[in-house]
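haha ok so turns out i had the wrong file open the whole time. this is the CORRECT one, sorry everyone. sequence first:
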Amino acid sequence: MLAGRFTVSNTWLMWAFGHYVVDIPATATYTAMSAMGALLRADGATERVVLPGRTEIGHNGSMTRIAIIGGHGKVALKLSPILAAEGHDVTSIIRNPDHQADVAATGATPLVLDVEQASTAEIADALRDHDAVVWSAGAGGGNPQRTYAVDRDAAIRSMDAAGQAGAGRYVMVSYLGSRPDHGVPADDPFFAYAEAKAAADSYLRGTSLDWTILGPGRLTDGPGTGLIDVHPDGSWQSADTSRANVALVAAAALKIPSTTGRRIEFRDGATPIETALEAAA
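then structure:
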């Protein structure tokens, strides 16, 4: 995420950061801008500008095809338009065929596959010819068996599948505090999720994938400010994190090589995302 400011000049917004200055039509209120020029509007949509001195993704042989598993989730629906606006070819893997129109509206290509039931080989077929995978799926709580089946078992199959398919970059959306010694009591409704995520995160660390684990705090529907604090004190319950910021962090992590092999916990805060991620890595 690039630090910057808006100044208004007639019908144009001026975004200034470093030595770059970009003129942007003032057709909406913009709340954040990613490193490669995806503008996150206050209404949740995205627009794109090409930044001076920056190479467009796809013009230099860099990552172009990204698969999002859990493509109809709230974070994924905010992530896919950011990635599409940055020039990526995005595939959103979804369970329910009725969600295809919602996904297509974000600029992603919907692919119907129930990863809870799919084999490793079937997931690998879906991931073939992709450069990166973002895991943003989840059972949604409530049923411990489904939680283990999706958040642990299916996630682990997707990691093996990514390796088989040659999709070497893998970003896991986890949560702040996920670890084997999470401390959640066995009779707590959150226990199954804490166990499942700890197991999945631990497995990912042991793979040969270029992985990044993201640990946002308590998810909210607040705006995507583009500002976070990394490795905050306290529990996830006290660390509000907007889903829009999680999407921006995931998009930024995909582009920052130094985030590979790192677990990065964060919450809404005061530091531009790209600056925060580079410092944390």
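The chain has two domains: 5-48, 65-280.
again sry for the mixup
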